[in-house]
Amino acid sequence: MNATTPATAIPAHIPPHLVLDYPLYLGATSYENPFDKIIPDMHDGPAAFYGLNAYPGYKPAWVFRRGEDLQAIYNDIESFSNKDFAPFAQLVGESWSTLPAETDPPMHGLYRLMINPLFAPRRMAQLEDRVRAYAKEYIEKFKASGRCEFMQDFAFRFPIAVFLELMGLPMSRVDDFLKWEHGMLHTPDMNAVADSVRTVKKYLLEVIEERRNEPRDDLVTYGINAKVDGRNLTDDELFGFCFNLFIGGMDTVSTNLALHFRHLADHPDHQNYLRANPDKIPAAIEELLRAYSAVTTFRTCVKPVVIGGVQLMPGDKVALCTTLVNRDPEVFPNPNEVKLDRNPRHLTFASGIHRCVGAPLARRELVIAQEEFLKAIPEFRVAPNAKILYHLGGVIQPDNLPLIWKV
Ligand code: HEM
Hints:
Elements: E1 19-21, E2 29-30, H1 38-42, E3 48-55, E4 59-64, H2 67-75, E5 80-81, H3 88-91, H4 107-115, H5 121-142, E6 147-149, H6 150-155, H7 157-167, H8 174-185, H9 190-213, H10 219-225, E7 227-228, E8 231-232, H11 235-249, H12 251-266, H13 268-276, H14 281-291, E9 296-301, E10 305-307, E11 310-312, E12 317-321, H15 322-325, H16 359-376, E13 380-382, E14 390-391, E15 397-398, E16 402-405
């Protein structure tokens, strides 16, 4: 067991031999690139196990490493609930739901009908120029210096700028958003998480109030005017909708940027190929999304069910680790090899009714960032002797990524 593991009563239906340490828990860190060994090695273990610390707050959860089993869970909306998908409302003693992520049918379907049009191709096309302009603006700042701290100078700030644009919020808030996002998603200290949730809630409620008085062409105003089942959203629903975009829409993109650019820095052949063939970037992004999938979300079992040969009982938590299933050797031959033309059917954006609604935007951000970076910056690599600290839990994300190139 890890030093951080509190004594946890293991329910009687859990076979003792399947109770195992889980390296990718919230709070775990490593200076080793986890995709080199820690993650590939997990495929030598059982297909399903009860991972100590796998649920935030050092609690246990089932972990499945095979794509087939994860698909079965995503699709089994009778046996698994999204309630308590993340512990944010509970932590501040409240009962709102992150929406639509924490809701179940039939309400979930109604919320998705309201949200889906926001990420339709026409909307994405309208955003394209602004997204590209933000990418260029950040790159321009460090281009001539021959180096950047990729996380601070690009990966964290670019998706926040896009998000602020969508929400109609001022760019002066980039640093605040970064601080709040990290306080909520990257600390195992649940008191600190609760403080950040309160701060974000206060800010978003102020914005909602402002938009009620002065409507604009942004997502908050869209939420205020939206109808679900013939009525407007309640205040809790409206906040839950904004909050879901906040936790879903920025950190996930930062993380993937970081992991993809680390790969390119370590593989100059891939980097140079894509620089010479920018039309291959969208396909390469799909393979990078597969190989460096970083998001884990959660379900609660609400009905006895057998998945992957193990018995789950009501109350059991399940960690849906997209990282593991996207390197499932039964689905992807040589899963640890990045083949830029693999064209994989990955689970990075999940599957089933909760499939990521922001995937079209995330894909555009990742493609545009790579296109603009490779156009502006010659062959780059990780700065010599850099020590890169990875957070392993929640989302797998490096703290820092110093890159250098010749000018
Ligand atoms: C590379 C970036 C991204 C990744 C890897 C990602 C991943 C995911 C995953 C795995 C889920 C499913 C959760 C589950 O079923 O348990 C999800 C849902 C969701 N994502 Fe994303 N996401 C990304 C970007 C975005 C963006 C840019 C937005 C919005 C601006 C967004 C908004 C959402 C929302 C609202 C949901 C909930 C959907 C529902 O419950 O019906 N995501 N995302």
